[in-house]
Amino acid sequence: MAHSRDEFEKRLRRIGEERYHDKHPFHHMLHSGQCTPDQVQAWVLNRFVYQAHIPMKDAALMSRCDDPVLRRIWRSRIEDHDGSEEAPGGIERWLRLATAVGLDRDYVASMQGALPASRFAVEAYVRFVRDRTLLEAIASSLTELFAPKIHSERIEGLLQHYDFADENSLSYFRNRLVEAPKDVAFGLQYVLDHADTREKQDAAAAALTFKTDVLWAQLDALHSAYVEPGRIPPGAWRPGEGMAK
Asked: Model confidence over 122-142: pLDDT tens digits?
């Protein structure tokens, strides 16, 4: 038997309460000022892999959608990250953060120093959105339900504890506080409207769980490589490489 609409929304929100990556030990280190400059750089560099693939994920979703209204609404997500001739997008803002923490923006943009697990997790997410049902693809985006809290905590923690942090370097997070609520309002409405059987509700919940696993796996890899000594895999960024010129 299907959940009621309210019960299903509560089920989705519980996934974030239990599994969102704001609970990962690396984020607690980062937001409380316990990360070294090298660990901050490693986070910025590896997170860029995710940032760079968000528009590709959204383009993959749009390519499967035959509803022009849905495509038009979803298109704003690509513009938010890729930017326009008039305004920078999220990718450019993240590269500003990379420069602020002392990394060379071209080196970060190349993604050549990213951890294998960072690439594998993000590529798995793009494949998921490309290959699963449209409902599952949209449901996987609902981690945005939980993002404003982590962005607010991140802004506060970085400004308090790190010299590189200012309004310019943290502009990505400021902008997402405005962009994410708009995106999630539509995504949540779509999922609640279209997950009208228990089977579809279970699939949507599993999709959201998968996305939390993607985000958690990236931080697990980061923690393993740069917090636990001697665990950096071959070919991945090492402290001192790719510094700003």
From this structure: 999 999 999 999 999 999 999
